[in-house]
Amino acid sequence: MSKLNKVVIIVSKIGEVCCWIACAFMIAMIIVTVTGHPSLLDYLSDVRDSSVLSNGGFELVLGDMAPGHTGSAYIIFFITVLITSALMAMIFRNVYLSFKTAEGKTKFSKGKTPFQPDIVRMIREIGIFSIAIPIVELIMTIIARIALGGAGVESSLNLNGILIGIVVLCLSQFFAYGTQLQEDNDGLV
Fold it and tell me: Is the pLDDT of residue 99 over 70?
C-alpha cells in the first residue's frame, strides 16, 4: 500500500469521527436550546448582536433578527449543521471503506481490486451526498426565511458541492465500466 493510500485512510477515518462528534454535539445543543436551559439562552441572547452563524451556503445574521427569533434561529442552525455533518461523515466513511475494500480488507471485498460493485456503489453515494449538502442548505434557508420572517437569513447556493458531486458520479460510471470489464476478464480465465 502506498503512503498516499495510508494518509487518505487515516484522514478519512479522522474526518468521519470528527463529523460524528459534531453531530452528537449538535444534538446536545438542540436539546439544551429546546429545553430552554436558562444560562445557555442568556448567553445566546448576549452574543446575538454581533453573531453570524455560517455553515457553507447557509448563513444567519443574528443582529438583523427580531429578539424573539434568536432561539429558533439557533435551533434551525444546529439542525442544518447536524444534517450536513452527518452527510460529511458518510462521505468520509465511504472513502475509508472504498480504500479498505480495494485492499481486500473488508468482509465484503472481492479481492485486491478497485473494480468491485461495492466500491462503485460507495463512489456513487459520495457523489449523491456531495450534491445533497448544498441542497439541504438551500432547503434550510427556505425554512429559516419562513420561520424567522426572512430577516437575517442569507443564502448562496454552493455550486462547488454540486459540481464535485457530478464529477464523482461520472467517476462512478468509469468504475462501473471497469467492474464489468473485470468480471468479463475473470470469466474468460
Answer: yes
- Please state, in angstroms and rounded to a whole number, the distance separating the CA atoms of residues 158 and 110: 37
Name which residue leads in pLDDT, 34 or 22. Answer: 22
Which three-class secondary structure state does DSSP give residue 11?
helix
Distance, CA of 96 to CA of 83 (rounded, Å) = 20
- How big is the chain, counted in residues? 189
DSSP, residue by residue, 138-168: HHHHHHHHHHHTTTTEEE---HHHHHHHHHH
Task: Read off the C-alpha cell for 25.
Answer: 454535539
C-alpha cell at 6: 495510508
pLDDT value for 163? 94
Q: Which three-class secondary structure state does DSSP give residue 129?
A: helix
Residue whose cell numbers read 473488508: 106
Q: Which three cell numbers stand for residue 123?
A: 463512489
> H/E element holding 60?
strand 58-61
Q: Taking CA 46 as the corner, what is the angle to CA 43 and CA 50, rounded to the nearest 5 degrees?
A: 120
Residue 133 has pLDDT above 70, yes or no: yes
Using alpha carbons only, give the angle 13, 59, 87 rounded to the nearest 5 degrees: 25
Q: Which residues contact 66 (CB under 8 A, 6 or more apart)?
A: 148, 149, 151
* Tens-place pLDDT, residues 48-73: 555 777 787 788 777 666 667 777 88
